[in-house]
Amino acid sequence: MKHDVKARFSKAARSYEKHADVQQRVADRLVSLFQLDPPPTRILDVGCGTGILTSRLVDRFPDAEIVAVDISDEMIDQAQLRSFADKVEWVVSDVLKFDDRQRFDLVTSSSTIQWVLPHSELFEHLYNLISPGGRLFFSMMVTGTLTELHSLRRTLFPEKLPATELSEMSVVKRTLEQAGFSVLWRKTMREDARYEDALAFFRSLHELGITGGHLSNSGVLLNRRELTRLIAEYQKRYGLDKGEVRASYQIGYFHCSKQNPSS
Question: Which of 25, 68, 171, 189 has its CB surrounded by the most CB atoms within 10 Å?
């Protein structure tokens, strides 16, 4: 599973940001939801990718020490081309194996946690990386993301459904609490996207590293003929003006705290 995630996102590294409009919007929204007073002094960005969230952290918390971790060295290479790169400590690592002698008062992540499984192991590990009284803020894709595509695939190829589905908000909340976190608030927001046509939409998913993983693959892959049919039917069913098509993403936002033992 981990090698699969690394391979897909490493392959997508150079093209990722050209297709990451939704991920950019989600990162903006996540940072706008931060409620942190006093501001954090040490921040960990989990699954930083090409630095979409990291750039916003640098702007929002210019005096903080920021560590950004990603399993893909190609993603980190792209992130290090950014103008602010020297203000961040970049680490190539599986987050489940990442450790640091100093704890963090803010751990955050945007559009990544859905790929890091099992969530129980991830949240327990993040809990141990956070200082007492520290916070965990993150966004992730949840059930209902790409509902148009999944609905169509169920209709056309019911015997070839993905083996795994995105998590429900209630399940994520329960897993966080089992790891020791207090969930201060959670909310779901929908992000709508438009693409030039259905083929452009499918290419975008590929360039973002979304296709080919556990959330799109069944035990038996779609063949070329089936994929061509899926694209054509998507265009018919979800087409808009001027040949464009639509797709929707359900994004879960969570604000959690690690209780101070003295509180």
Answer: 68
| Other Cβ atoms closer than 10 A to 219 | 9
Q: Could you tell me the domains of the chain? A: 2-257 (3.40.50.150)
Burial class of residue 190 in the structure, from the number of CB atoms within 10 Å of its CB (0-12 exposed, 13-18 middle, 19+ buried): exposed
* Amino acid letter, residue 187: K
pLDDT digits (tens, 9 = 90+) for 130-181: 999 999 999 999 999 999 999 999 999 999 887 678 999 999 999 999 999 9
Query: Which value, to the nearest 10 degrees, does the dihedral of the CA atoms of residues 7, 9, 14, 16 take?
Result: 160
Contacts of 230 (CB under 8 A, 6+ apart): 152, 153, 156, 157, 222
Q: CB–CB of 1/217 below 8 Å?
A: no
Strands 42-46 and 65-70: parallel
* Residues 184/257, Cβ–Cβ less than 8 Å: yes
Give the global pTM.
0.89
